[in-house]
């Protein structure tokens, strides 16, 4: 009887430790992208951008538009890199990471 109790105690402690470590991680990322806009967006329609969290499964950039609705774009797209370069020249340091 002693061995099953010990095994059960170890199992309970292990589950508690896992639950505690998962709880201290905090919530997941606020925003991740799964669908991407492939067509270039005019610079005049974009007021800023944010990089998504590294915890997201897809690396992405969220373009903040004048109308307020963010667009998900691929950071590897050449037109996105040019747009980010232009935005950084106008307001460096105005980006944030989600």
Automatic annotation (TrEMBL):
Record bears the keyword Secreted = yes
According to the entry, every stretch annotated as the Chemokine interleukin-8-like domain falls at 29-87
Q: Name one GO cellular component term.
A: extracellular space
The main location is secreted
Instruction: Give compartment(s).
Output: Secreted
Q: InterPro entries, alphabetically? A: Chemokine_b/g/d (IPR039809), Chemokine_IL8-like_dom (IPR001811), Interleukin_8-like_sf (IPR036048)
SUPFAM superfamilies named among the record's database cross-references: Interleukin 8-like chemokines
Q: Which residues form the signal peptide?
A: 1-23
Q: Which GO terms describe its molecular function?
A: chemokine activity
Q: Which UniProt keywords apply?
A: Cytokine, Secreted, Signal
Question: CDD domains this protein is in?
Answer: Chemokine_CC (cd00272)
Q: Which Pfam families match?
A: IL8
A single GO BP term for this record reads: immune response
Task: Return the protein name.
Answer: Chemokine (C-C motif) ligand 35, duplicate 1
